[in-house]
Automatic annotation (TrEMBL):
It holds the Pfam family Trypsin. It comes from Cervus elaphus hippelaphus (European red deer). SMART domains: Tryp_SPc. The keyword Protease applies. GO terms for biological process: proteolysis. GO terms for molecular function: serine-type endopeptidase activity. The keyword Hydrolase applies. The lineage of its organism: Eukaryota, Metazoa, Chordata, Craniata, Vertebrata. Keywords: Disulfide bond, Hydrolase, Protease, Serine protease. InterPro entries: Peptidase_S1_PA, Peptidase_S1_PA_chymotrypsin, Peptidase_S1A, Trypsin_dom, TRYPSIN_HIS, TRYPSIN_SER. Residues 4-234 form the Peptidase S1 domain. This is Peptidase S1 domain-containing protein.
Amino acid sequence: MERIADGSVAKKADWPWQASLQVDGIHFCGATLISEVWLLTAAHCFESYKNPKRWTASFGTTLSPPLMRQEVQSVVIHEDYASHKHDDDIAVVKLSTPVIFSDEVHRVCLPDATFEALPKSKVFVTGWGALKANGPFPNTLREVEVEIISNDICNQVHVYGGAVSSGMICAGFLKGKLDACEGDSGGPLVIARDGNIWYLIGIVSWGMDCGKENKPGVYTKVTHYRDWIKSKTGI
């Protein structure tokens, strides 16, 4: 389980695309609803538990009780993902039955492959992850506003020293504090555009510790994998 530290409690229906991926009914990772049947998440969530029958997805701002729970039909992990590296940390999850959209549960928009979130753009990450490194998971969804950090800055020697590839995006603050944390993995990094339409631009992937100075969160860059997502889901 990987990487909201120092965030705030999310209001009901603010992030209706957020899902909790659970193993045997226990929260394990975040995920994002991109259609009635498909969730987008991180490949590394499935390293320990590969059998889709053990997984369920829950929706709503609280883990217990959830607003809705769905069974998982299948999991498709990126063909090039390998656990010893962070590249291609992306997977899609197909639900057994379609979700009926409402104010509280509906999909997020996916950006075109050409979309670029500029450095310093304000973005939000959400999840039920730990509030600090090795801390407990909260029952209520949390949110934190962070900003995009350029890959050039993120690859500086004192930050991640070249480990951030073109398929990744950094967000947070070099001074630390606000960040994703353990249990947020696979969850959404979103940006508001065109008025108030929210687009998914990142998937919580990796980082060093939580909210640590010069160690911002690193996210799988959704636009980089736009064709892969379409090839697996038709979306």
